[in-house]
Amino acid sequence: MTLGALNILSRNDKRGFRRALNIFSRNREGFFLHVEGGAIDWAGHRNNSPRLIEEHVDFDNTVEAVIAWIEEHTSWDETLLVITGDHETGYLTGPGSGPDARPMWQPIENRGKGVLPGMEWHSGGHTNQLIPLFAKGAGAERLRDRVIDIDPERGPSIHHIDIGKVFFSLLED
């Protein structure tokens, strides 16, 4: 579905897909596409490990397809790819985690091909755990410029609202 959306949105034909999008992007060529791996969220709420893994594999395949599309149809000099989530759900850790463990939060265990990893869920809701943000291409440096803190385990972090601010600043250029 993502590749179909990219192919439709990138058309410059009589149906006016570009013309409609140009109104949004201040009369310049281009488009925005938001793709969500929505079942990742509900799998986390339900602490459903097998479904979470399936959804992540599907999402990873989608990201790979988008990268291939960018490299075939455009360039990283004119395209920005941002991958993130809106929140963490489930507080997933490795087995044996908790206040008595040292370190407190154990890593998820690789138990080999075809076997579910060793993991524990600590919540059925949204958590305050940091989520990753990956950005590549035109404008990615603006996200790096928004770094507010460096987490010793997860690296640089930014305020989530700054992602939208960066998108709007790119439109103003």
Structure characteristics:
single chain, 173 residues, alpha+beta, two-stranded antiparallel ribbon, two-stranded antiparallel sheet, globular
Which range best describes the helical content: under 10%, 10-25%, 25-40%, 40-55%, 55-70% or over 70%?
25-40%
Return the structural class: alpha+beta
How many discrete structural domains? 1
Shape: globular
> What's the order of the H and E elements?
HHHHEEEEHEEH
Gyration radius from CA atoms, angstroms: 19 Å
Please indicate the percent range of residues in DSSP E strands (runs of 2 or more): 5-15%
* Residue runs with pLDDT of under 50 for 5 or more positions: 16-27
Count all strands and give the number: 6
Topology overview:
Elements: H1 2-9, H2 17-24, H3 38-45, H4 49-73, E1 80-83, E2 88-89, E3 126-127, E4 134-137, H5 140-144, E5 149-151, E6 155-157, H6 161-172
Antiparallel strand pairs: 1-4, 2-3, 5-6
Helix pairs in contact: 3-4
Question: Care to describe what's here?
Answer:
With 173 residues, this protein is of the alpha+beta class. The protein contains six helices and six strands; from the N terminus they run H-H-H-H-E-E-E-E-H-E-E-H. It has one domain. Helices cover 38% and strands 10% of the residues. The strands form three sheets. The protein has a two-stranded antiparallel ribbon with strand order 1-4. A two-stranded antiparallel sheet has the order 2-3. About 7% of the residues have low confidence.
